[in-house]
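Q: Sequence in, structure out?
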Amino acid sequence: MYSKMIVDINCDVGEGIENEHLLMPYISSCNIACGGHFGNVKSIDKTIKLAKENKVKIGAHPSFPDKENFGRLLMQISDEDLKKSIQNQMNLFLERLSLFDAKLHHIKPHGALYNAIAVNEKLAIFFADVIKPYLKETYLYVPYNSVIERVALKNNIKIMYEAFADRNYNNDLSLVSRKQKNALLVDKRAVLSHVLQMIKHQKVKTISGLEIPIKSDTFCVHGDTENAIEIVKFIHQEIQKEGFKID
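A: Exactly. Output:
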């Protein structure tokens, strides 16, 4: 786990935005799409190479096999088909990593899968069972006070708590739906304030104005947020001015 003076900033990358070369200098870990919602050998290889060049920790970003909806809708799929898809995504990713002599630091599920295992115990248990063989020396990124957090700890899976720098929260610590106009934080100063509140006080201010306790080891800025480059550059600079190290 990270000490209080060290902050990890992560981005979802390899998702077709083609801005990874601009993001990488300002982040410390990344989550690379591995074929479920986006990604193929070419995009995976390109992103791994960039991560290595920038000394950014590498994570796999598996999802529902749903490129049509970018993995952001809950998918009706059999357990067997979902298991095969996650295994195929992970096996492809590990194969590409080995070619670059790169190490897997973490796994972070994407989109609707991430949100579902945060609240659905049956799916969280299923996901943990499928993913556990890949987590022997790596972390699973999980939201604080979630179902997948409890399931992972019960299964002796190492976790890191993830919070979202560019997303607003509800009182139950779920993310405000992207269908709502206030789901995203795009003003760089608002993002910084949001992050510093979580770092310094272990609390997040929700859209209703409440301050709710939260744990956070890593902060996500979505690579497809319109001004993601501006945001990561700004918070990278300002967080270090506050005396923290980005690592």
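The chain has a mean pLDDT of 96.
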